[in-house]
Specification:
Blueprint (H helix, E strand, L loop, with lengths): L2 H28 L1 H11 L7 H16 L3 H20 L3 H17 L1 H7 L6 H9 L9 H6 L3 H6 L2 H4 L7 H10 L1 H90 L1
Length: 270
């Protein structure tokens, strides 16, 4: 496969990834009731943090819809680690408000989490970790700092694990681009398979066309031979008929000559 053709496939794969994300967003937009419900969980946090809550909830919903337990485990870890990062930045009260929002969301979706737990045995403990985040008015900074253990941090997405507290659509798009090589690989394999199949089909079509052409020529040749035979037979029959007519005419003339000669001899005797 030529390099330029492979690059075309690669860019097509990236476009498909982009369209896939766009389709997901479109489907989410169509379900206005769900969006309104999810937005209420982000309404209590600061304007700066609202995109993060909305992104985490969006990830949660997509993980459940796709039945991707491993991705859901990462989202649950992200939920906890964002809390930790806010605390580390000295934003304890904002961390509490954020924690209350995600705790309510997790509580309201307990049935989905229970069903998804069969796909990843880390989900139950991660859910408990979210539920146990210190969010009460009495919770101290020391308690908050000890709430999220390093094991949970290791399960979070790279940006959150590094200390980010803002997760938005731009970062999600970056993740999609980062994962694009796998999509490119799949697209390249599919394109290569299609190319091979098309080549086989084209080769079969060419062979069939040649066979059909050869058969047509053979049929035409056979028809020409049959036509020549018919023409020759007709000519022979016509020749026979003409010869017979000539013979019959000659016989008639001989008989006429004999009759005339007999009359002449008869007249001579008189």
């Amino acid at each position: 496969m030529k390099k330029s053709h492979f690059l075309t496939i690669a860019f097509a794969a990236l476009a498909m990834v982009g369209r896939g994300n766009k389709t997901d967003n479109t489907n989410n937009t169509e379900d206005s009731a769900t969006i309104e419900e999810d937005s209420t969980f982000a309404s209590g946090v600061s304007q700066e943090l609202q995109p993060t809550v909305e992104a985490l909830i969006s990830n949660f919903n997509q993980n459940v819809e796709k039945n991707d337990a491993n991705a859901l485990a990462t989202t649950l870890a992200d939920m906890q680690v964002v809390y930790k990062n806010l605390v580390d930045e000295g934003k304890l009260e904002e961390a509490k408000t954020y924690g209350q929002a995600i705790q309510k969301y997790v509580s309201d979706h307990a049935s989905e989490l229970q069903a998804m737990a069969e796909g990843n045995n880390n989900i139950p403990s991660l859910v408990e970790g979210v539920k146990n985040l210190p969010v009460s008015a009495e919770a101290t900074i020391e308690e908050a700092k000890q709430a999220v253990i390093s094991t949970v941090v290791s399960k979070a997405s790279p940006e959150i694990a590094k200390g980010a507290t803002i997760l938005n659509n731009a970062q999600q798009t970056a993740e999609a681009v980062k994962n694009a090589p796998e999509a490119i690989k799949d697209a390249a394999e599919t394109a290569a398979e299609n190319t091979v199949n098309n080549a086989i089909d084209n080769a079969k079509a060419k062979v069939q066309a040649k066979a059909d052409n050869a058969k047509a020529k053979a049929d035409n040749a056979k028809a020409a031979v049959e036509q020549e035979k018919a023409t020759t037979k007709a000519a022979i029959e016509k020749g026979k008929a003409n010869a017979k007519a000539i013979i019959e005419s000659g016989k008639a003339q001989v008989e006429a000559a004999k009759a005339l000669n007999a009359k002449i001899q008869e007249a001579g005797k008189k």
